[in-house]
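Quick illustration, no need to memorize.
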Amino acid sequence: MQKQPERLDGFLRRKSVLAVNAVIFLLAAWGFAGEFVRNRETQHEIDRLSKQVADLESKNFEIARLGQKLATTDMLEREARLNLGLQKPGESVIIVQDAEPPLPAPARPPTVQEQAGERVSNAGKWWRYFFKPNQM
């Protein structure tokens, strides 16, 4: 009867059994690691979508508040007057114009190349501005 425990003990001490067990352990660890990474990515996606939901809910609340504000009669009248040019019965429109027309922008003196009729690229103008200031 003593031979069976020794046989089992010898079997478990073999290097091939140890190698098979190591391979099985590595495959199981690989599966757990892959599942962990997938779970982590899913959680990041859930967090991102939750933040997006919160942002959209706040925008929706602001839009609803703006809609309520625009639905009041005072705001409707104001918008009708400004955008559509409507008026209440008995009202008259007065247009106020500026007394003086706006002044034109001051003209810069033409450069030497422009006086000669030569077209100068923008890069060339900058080059002359920094390195040849007397030709401006």
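The mean pLDDT is 81.
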